[in-house]
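Subject: Sanity check before I submit

Could someone independently write out the structure tokens for this chain? I want to compare against mine line by line before I put it in a report. The sequence has 182 residues.
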Amino acid sequence: MTFEKIDTLVLAGATRVSHKFQRLTGRTNFFLAKLGFALGTLSLIIGLGNYWHQFLAFPTSFLILILFLPLTVLWFWMAKKCDSAEDSAFSSTARTKHPLFDNQRMRTLTLVFALVDLAFMPTLIQISPTPILECLHQDYGIALAIFHYFASVDPLPPGQNKVGAWLEAWRSSFAKPTHSSG
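---
Independent answer below. Compare away.
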């Protein structure tokens, strides 16, 4: 199976999850992409903190620290582009995707990065003094893949969501009936 086919399958899965989530909650794929962003940001923060006080399996070197800084700037730039894509997705009838988020090569690269993270994660978790922090730190590639795949999904048009409809019905059940005096 080629990387293009794998990318197509993963993107189709992300689209299904995103559309079901949007129908359920009213939140779009961009919300899910931002969850990936939050996970990646947490990973970077843990790596930065490990430089000053080692709590992961291996110390963060000064070289890695220097690499984290532009990576953090790039990460926030991509999140800003995600916000712009979300704003433009519903601002006109011609919904277009931002080219950064519809790049098959970039998505495939993040998927490979996520698989490498997954391959090393079990060993690093076993030798780490703080396995939960190690897991959160090692998920950067996974977070990047989540971000890119969900940001590449074309959102559904806005509509009523199931949770919103349920909450509205629940709220209206508490409304006092008005009695007409006659």
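---
OP: Matches mine. For the report I'm noting this point. The chain has seven helices and no strands.
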